[in-house]
Amino acid sequence: DHMGVYGYPRDNTPFETEAAENKDYTFFTHAYSSYTQTVQSLTYALTQKNQYNKIPLVDAYSIIDMARAAGFRTTWISNQSRFGIWDTPIGAIGSACDDQHWMNDYIGTGVQTKDYDSILVPQLQKVDPNNRRQLIVIHLMGSHVSYWDRYPHAGFYKYPLDQSKTRSKDQVMIDEYDNSVLYTDHVLSEIMNVAINHLHADEVMYFSDHGELVTQNPGHNADQFEFQMVHIPFWIYTSPEYQKKHPAEFAAMKRRKNWLFTNDMAYDTLMGSMGLTSVKYDPTCDFFSRKYDKDITNMMTMYGNIWLREDVKALGTNYKNQ
Length: 322
Ligand SMILES: [Zn+2]
What we know:
Bound molecules: zinc ion
Structural class: alpha/beta
Radius of gyration: 19 Å
Distance between the termini: 25 Å
Strand content: 5-15%
Number of strands: 9
Number of domains: 1
Largest sheet: 4 strands, mixed
Strand order of the largest sheet: 5-6-1-7
CATH architecture: 3-Layer(aba) Sandwich
CATH superfamily: Alkaline Phosphatase, subunit A
Shape: globular
Number of helices: 11
Order of helices and strands: HEHHEHEHEHHEEHHEHEEH
């Protein structure tokens, strides 16, 4: 809801706005998170468990387990804490990777960073491009509170455009948040530069763990649920070589850009993209599979407690599944 590329009036995503015009990128317009908070959302996104199956979380394999079992080299690059209590289950998933770069050693209950997200880019540069079978996970700090700690003011303190005017507290929060989105857009441009020109990546998938209600008391607390807290960006880059090799998947991507998606299906969608479709894979949750069967009648958020169809205003008329 605060990204220029998705129709927000401020142009705070110059890189993504341009990328959206490029056929190698597909921007999905109706993506939701499965929960309003980091750990809950990511444990479902990165494992077999999702809102639509009955697999107990303790028995669910992670995308890292499956990629490694299939001979992929796995790398985890994170600017979120490995040991903070909010992040521990995610730390456990990342700790299974062959190579790990944890740039944030904060231990505690807060969400603190020493460094801005661009610190992750040199770590990506270290990955060997000659290995053609690998999975790299990059976990950004993004726009998590406190927004003003998430971006360097030099170059990214763009809003308010008129800095002489007095602003309400709500407007200050909105400006800070929008600046943090502008900075994330810049980090994404740096990541894509390395992914394309150094790694020659076949595919890059980007999504956020959840959204945010940007007000004076900002956040994404589950007990004050608003749909803005689960509206997320979701886009995919595929290389021209990959598109040639997987024409059906690429065509499905383009055809389904306005379909409904929840990010707990990232696991099966990635499994499909990596060609890992024989075990621990559910094609009905792979967004680009012919067997994908999720639509307005059965899709949910908040761990299956809220129907997406209740978000009528945001759905508008241009969403479509089937
Ligand atoms: Zn989060």
